[in-house]
Amino acid sequence: MTEQNLIILNIPVLFEVLNEIKDNLNFKIVKVDNKNDLQKINSEIIENSIILSTLKNEIKENRNQIILSELPINIKNLLETINVKLLKLKYNNESEIVAKNFKINLNSREISINGKKVKLTEKEIAIILFLNSSIKECSVDDLKREVWRYKKDLDTHTVETHIYRLRKKIKENFKDSKLIISTKIGYKIG
Fold this sequence. Notes:
The protein is an alpha/beta fold. It has helices at 12-20, 35-38, 43-47, 75-94, 122-133, 140-146, 158-174, and strands at 5-9, 28-32, 49-54, 65-68, 96-99, 102-105, 110-113, 116-119, 180-182, 187-189.
């Protein structure tokens, strides 16, 4: 995971205070003077950041934000709040996997794209994760062994049935028929 950041939006005095103790902080602090400068920052950095701002600089569409409504503030309490928020952000980022253009949230068991979400079963998530982590195409036997933990060759259509239902769910909800592709060997993420 990339380094976590605290972006201080247009609060120069607070930046100076935190900059003095930066060696004792477990995050990097970044000073941003206005909202326009914030848009110039790399989106990956923004995703791993908490934005600290005042009410007048609040960014409505960002949920990883701490709004300071009253000044002066207690630095100890502020640092505690920042650390808790960064821990939650790290947990949320580590629980999200990307497959093709889709995001899979392991905590809520949802697959999403462009804000639309659909619930998945544990096996559906396991199938997508296994195919997504594989460098090559996966055979039905690979899936039986790794996802279902079958020890021996069983004559079953469990894999094919689950993949058929998963593809149908993805196609009906997202109009995408290429997340899981059939190959001569088996299956892969498209």
